[in-house]
Amino acid sequence: MRPWVRVALALFGVGWGANQFAPLLLVYRDQEHLSGTVVTALFGAYAIGLVPALLLGASYSDRLGRVRVMRPVVVLSLLASAVLLVAGDQVWALTAGRLLAGIASGAAFGPGGTV
């Protein structure tokens, strides 16, 4: 398999994991009766993880290499999805999962986009 295909698949998986949660925010608000503030905070947790990881992920990949950064990031993205899967309506677990997804996305999009 060509290297760019592996990177494309990794970025697709991380991107999917980051965005699969967004439509569920409406469900959490309507079905689980979470307030608009909590739903917004869950959405914001992703951004809180994303921005620093974007800045640091590219820098680390310059020093350590793209592959050494991307492999654990893909695993982190899977972990974030697993946390969201089992979180149910527990706000702390949903927040943790969204934060992990943001970190994984930021750390993947910088190095993955330069390969």
Please tell me the total number of domains. Answer: 1
Distance from first to last alpha carbon: 15 Å
Helix content: over 70%
Major sheet size, sense and barrel closure: none
Based on Cα principal axes, name the global outline.
elongated
Number of strands: 0
Whole-number mean pLDDT:
88
Contiguous uncertain segments of 5+ residues: none
The succession of helices and strands, N to C, reads: HHHHH
Structural class: mainly alpha
Total DSSP helices: 5
Rg is: 15 Å
Beta-strand content:
under 5%
Structure description:
It is a single chain. The mean pLDDT is 88. This protein has one domain (3-112). It has helices spanning 3-19, 24-30, 36-64, 66-87, 91-112. It is mostly helical. It is elongated. It is built from five helices and no strands. Helix 1 runs antiparallel to helix 5 (91-112) and helix 2 (24-30) packs antiparallel against helix 3 (36-64).
Secondary structure: elements and pairs:
Layout: H1 3-19, H2 24-30, H3 36-64, H4 66-87, H5 91-112
Helix pairs in contact: 1-4, 1-5, 2-3, 3-4, 3-5, 4-5
Give a concise summary.
This protein has helices at 3-19, 24-30, 36-64, 66-87, 91-112. By secondary structure, the chain is mainly α. The longest helix is centred in the middle third of the chain and has 29 residues, at 36-64.
Give the tags.
115 residues, mainly alpha, elongated
